[in-house]
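Reopening closed ticket. The problem is back. First fold of the pair:
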Amino acid sequence: MSDHLIVQITQLKNAEGLPVPHYQTEHSAGVDLSAALDEDMVIGPGRWKLVPTGIAVAIPEGFEGQVRPRSGLALKHGIGMLNSPGTIDADYRGEIGVILFNFSDTPFAVHRGDRIAQMVIAKLERARFEQVEALSTTARGAGGFGHTGVS
């Protein structure tokens, strides 16, 4: 019996013939998600598109799926994600889609089967929020963006 978490996955019709997401190496943190397209999709400079993956998952309660950009696409082509990381809730059963953004100044073509993002399964903690009149003080206080100076 394995001590690994079980995440049920189903391939949708648009993903027929594509590999089921799997870990590429023994210590990979995430699995690659592929583009389940019928025809090539071009993302213009400064534009974004929703790319279907052709899979749906049943993530166990107490966990989430985090959809993250692939570093190779960012470095080589200037392609990232608008909502990074994207969150897949445990009760979502629809197709996973990836909102790719073209940060470069040249059009980028996405082809069927291209690895477009990665998904990491992460344990989460649900909080109970308690309303109070004032928060405890800290040395930082309300210091926000850039409060420690430029380094």
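Second fold of the pair, where the issue appears:
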Amino acid sequence: MNDGAATAKSVDIALGDIADLQDVVDRDALREICRSFFDLFNLSVRIYGGSGKLLASVSEPVELYQYLQELESGGKLVGDIVDAVKRLVPTGNEVERHETITGAVYDVVPITYQGRGVGRFVIGPFVPAELEQVPKALVRLDRSVDRMKLRDLLMKMPRVREETAERITDHLRSVIDLLLFSSHRAHLTSEMHVASVRESYRELAEKTAKLQSAYDRLKELDQLKSNFLATVSHELRTPLTSIIGYSEMLEANIAGELNDEQREFIGTIHQKGNQLLGLISSLLDLSKLEQGVMRLAPQPVDAGGLIEDLERTFAPHAHKKGIDLVVEVRGELPALNADPLRLKQILANLAENAIKFTPEGGTVRMVAEATEWEDEGGDFGAVLMGSTREAVAFRISDTGIGMPSAELERIFDAFYQVDGSSTREHGGTGLGLSIVKRLVDAHGGAVTVDSKPGQGTTFTVTIPEAES
């Protein structure tokens, strides 16, 4: 049995090797085979694996053995017969017959697969058809033995002719071979599928680990970028404020009268300084929003007054560019609890973009109107469990150049520009809409965009009233 176990370790079933019958064949199937042969021939059948383990057995008590066990020395005899049959392992591929002192015999048949012994089956005990007398050795076994009873019990055992025994063993061997072949193929297919799934899982695990590593690295780089922008922006803001302040003093003739050319130069310095200050402020705002350190200061806000104030701020700019600026406050607006400075920053950014991308003779429209905000209702959905609140929708639309639909999903990404070429007509850093999106989210609202090339763009910012 130890040799069988050692053999099992040296084979690989995935490569087509089998060390033991029990590796691939279902025991219930073997038991059914034994049952069928027993029903057909009334012969006991036992099937053993390569390691000597009994896998299936169908038999009935042998009356002769039961009688012998009643005798003083008969019990040991029966035990020795059974042990001898169990230990008998054919060395080749031929049937090995084991003859016993009782006259009964056992046929031990090797089960091989692809040239390798994987088990054996035993048929018997049965009596050769030519046997007519009780063996003398059995009669001498015990003085109290009943010779006539021995003969009757021996003759009641199954009697099989030599050629019939050969046909039975050949037939049973063929059935087991067929079962072994089909079971092995099914098992091999299953093993290959499992191996394939295991390999796919390993590859997936490796890719997941690489993605996680890349994600962690990108996250680290993003944090370094945010820290760098915040530090640089802060360090640039102080000297830039001084530059703008001194340019304003020079424009006010504090250092003496300026001629027209000097005043033009100072005006350019002041203008570009303000543009750079706006960029630095945007970088600082983005950094604070990304790090979650920007705090809103909510308070009651008059939405109508906010949109009208926006008109006063941008009317000169629109007029100078030849753009018609239209402002509408539709109906009674609900009171909002928001940060007025940040809300004005959101709308001012959108209004500035609308004017920048609208050509002369176009129209920019700023509208504030009441609407409803639908709260989601959890796992059962908004329809069943949701509720609504009043909200204000700010719509800023233009008749400018518009954007293709493929670009709309990315316009809220930081530093992204629809026209990112070095020769683009309209300037900008690509930070404005990213800041707008983050500020709107911080207010618990939503921003959407609708645009078509050559037909203009409409941004809608919806801010709900505070939850009661």
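Update: turned out to be a display glitch only; the data is intact. DSSP finds twelve helices and 13 strands in the chain. The first helix runs from residue 2 to 9. Please close again.
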